[in-house]
Write a structure and sequence with these properties.
The protein is of the alpha+beta class and 247 residues long. The protein is built from six helices and seven strands; from the N terminus they run ααβαββαββααββ.
Length: 247
């Protein structure tokens, strides 16, 4: 009788595990389908936006408004791409990389300019060494930078400064993003790249979820055989430091 009960318990646990796996797979498939379906209306909005930009009767205010909405649509596209990336990772498809020669300073300047349009109340300060070139995936690197800078804006002061620093070393480059907002508690730091979670402290922009972005950042950094490190204290704020091998 004891052995029979143990066998029943074992079968029950196996069944429960399989059910959970199937449930997670169904959830990931649903998220993947949702992400793909959301791309269609956003593409329509981008098309209409492109037509409006061709108008010769736009006022200066109208042009600025279009610039803001263009960045917002791009951010929505980025969020959907993050969702699809994470879904594919969970379904075991992995993340693809295509490395090409890249000027890291030029790429960073372009991305910062986009954020200046989206967040005019934030001061973005870029400091860099000269001649930072390497072989990286341009799309993935842009995605990584966008996610880190957006997080710095969301979790920093709504009228503060975001500092981006680029450093050049013989075999690797370093990309760092710093903000002076609320620090990340130690217990949160331990799981920040492991799961989606929500910070307990709301910030001034009322956007306190760390979301999917940092999970994608981790995958991109590891896909380049790089490393990511976070420093966060109440006195100094929060800094994400990315080390990227040049080859």
């Amino acid at each position: 009788m004891i052995r029979f009960n143990e066998a029943v318990d074992e079968i029950w646990m196996i069944s429960l595990t399989r059910f959970q796996e199937k449930l997670n797979e169904s959830k990931n498939l649903f998220l993947g389908i949702l992400g793909h379906d959301l791309r269609n209306p956003i593409s329509t909005i981008k098309g209409a936006h492109s037509l409006l930009k061709l108008s010769e009767n736009l006022s200066e205010k109208g042009k600025k408004t279009l610039a803001y909405t263009e960045v917002s649509v791009d951010r929505m596209t980025s969020l959907i791409n993050n969702l699809l990336e994470l879904t594919e990772l969970r379904l075991g498809k992995g993340m693809s990389f295509q490395k090409v020669p890249i000027d890291l300073v030029e790429l960073s300047q372009n991305i910062i300019h986009e954020h200046e349009l989206a967040y005019p109340q934030i001061e973005f300060v870029l400091s860099f060494d000269d001649d930072i070139h390497g072989n990286w995936d341009r799309l993935r690197l842009s995605q990584m930078m966008n996610n880190l800078i957006t997080n710095a804006v969301k979790h920093g002061s709504s009228t503060g400064t975001v500092q981006i620093t680029l450093r050049n070393y013989e075999r690797h480059a370093e990309f760092a993003v710093h903000n002076n907002g609320s620090h990340i508690p130690q217990e949160v730091l331990q799981k920040i790249f492991k799961e989606r979670f929500t910070s307990g402290n709301k910030n001034e922009l009322k956007e306190n979820s760390y979301g999917l972005g940092l999970l994608i950042v981790k995958e991109i950094v590891e896909g380049h055989q790089g490393e990511i490190h976070v420093e966060s204290t109440p006195q100094t704020g929060t800094t994400f430091i990315i080390t990227l091998p040049k080859e």
